[in-house]
Amino acid sequence: MKKHIASVSFGKDSLAMLLRLLEENKPLDEVVFYDTGMEFNAIYNIRDKVIEMLKDKNIKFTELKPKCNFEYCMFEKPVKVGKPNEHKGYSWCGGRCRWGTMEKISTIEKYCENAYEYVGIAVDEPQRLQKERKGNKLFPLEEWNMTEKDCLSYCYANGFDWVEDGIHLYDILDRVSCWCCANKNLKELKNYYLYLPTYWEKLKQLQSKTDRPFKYNKYTIFDLEEKFKKEKKDGDIR
Fold it and tell me: Is pTM, for the whole model, over 0.90?
């Protein structure tokens, strides 16, 4: 008989899925988490809390990791070896070059290939649902008709929150994905600058090691800092 494995990032949607699977006593043999090494501290705090819950229920927890350290891949790994454009490092992960995301997806899919994999995609993300539909994947949030907003409310109601420096991350970010994801939009990045100075400094440290702009092939983190400084000075902090 195939095992049932829940793939959980510990963001709002996959966590809501896991909590409801447990609440409704659905078949669940294992929970798998892929640690990029670049998650918010809040994600790791929730992971640790959930691990204790799983121990009480005798459900296996597995943590997968990338083949190489994230910053090694970003700055040092030989790329396009032997070709005229050979270089070191993939630079930022995001946009057309989602190298970290692709490794994460392929690693989890390979791990779960002989099991039923619960995937936490909300019902109001139809394009993602369609893209991810494969023979062994199950989508409980769609079955339960749970939207992203529903998922966040469900997590809050069950005592889970994502807090950094006194800030509730889902109040200022659309997604609590890797803190260095280049798919973050300008609104989210401005909120990093305004409310998450620790992570903003980390972004600056990464940018200092690569020439590739962070957003739109135009803005480096340092460009964005100047932009946000000016907007703050001018009173535009929306």
Answer: yes
